[in-house]
Design brief:
Number of helices: 4
Helix content: 55-70%
Number of strands: 7
Order of helices and strands: HEEEEEEEHHH
Structural class: alpha+beta
Mean pLDDT: 79
Strand order of the largest sheet: 1-2-3-4-5-6-7
Low-confidence stretches: 1-31
Radius of gyration: 20 Å
């Protein structure tokens, strides 16, 4: 029997990714609840109180627009954090696009299979693409774990960054089980 939950999930991921790349007030592209990438490619981390830390690709840190002096070791930790956030965003977008493509393919396969009187062909046509989306989603979970580790290193090296280290361990396990 056809299992539509996989293509529907893939379509939902695609639509979610499409929605998450829009601008909020013309400034941010949301990567996830407390983490964004601005139009200059800077990572914006929001604390629970709404204050903002900005991390550049070069490892510069500003908290609420005030530049924070950092050592070379701290700068390296910030560069790694920035790179991990960008990788998460890029892989998330790739997964969303693949999910959307799979969802659209699934719709076509359902229509084609039903119209031709061959509904048994639908599963095979959709599952191969869905497996690719699942593999891409695993990359996103790996990226999230790497970003979590990177935020921990930054928070340990720069105590002022601790309020912006908002990714929780539960998010990693949730990602890996869903």
């Amino acid at each position: 029997m056809l299992k539509l939950h996989t293509p529907i999930l893939a379509l939902a991921l695609g639509l979610l990714a499409a929605c998450s790349t829009g601008n909020q007030g013309g400034t941010y592209s949301s990567a996830f609840q407390h983490l964004s990438i601005d139009s200059n490619g800077n990572v914006i981390a929001l604390a629970h109180d709404g204050s903002k830390a900005t991390v550049t690709a070069a490892g510069a840190l500003a908290i609420n627009t005030k530049s924070i002096a950092v050592t070379p070791t701290q700068r390296q930790a910030l560069e790694n954090y920035h790179a991990a956030a960008i990788k998460l965003l890029d892989d998330g977008i790739a997964t969303g696009k693949a999910g959307l493509s799979t969802g659209m393919h699934a719709i076509g396969a359902v229509v084609s299979g039903l119209a031709s009187g061959n509904p048994d062909s639908i599963d095979a046509k959709v599952n191969a693409r869905a497996d690719k989306v699942s593999a891409l989603a695993e990359n996103v979970c790996t990226d999230l774990a790497q970003l979590y580790a990177a935020q921990g290193r930054v928070a340990a090296a720069i105590p002022a960054f601790k309020p912006y280290a908002t990714i929780a361990p539960q998010e990693i396990s949730d990602c890996q089980t869903h």
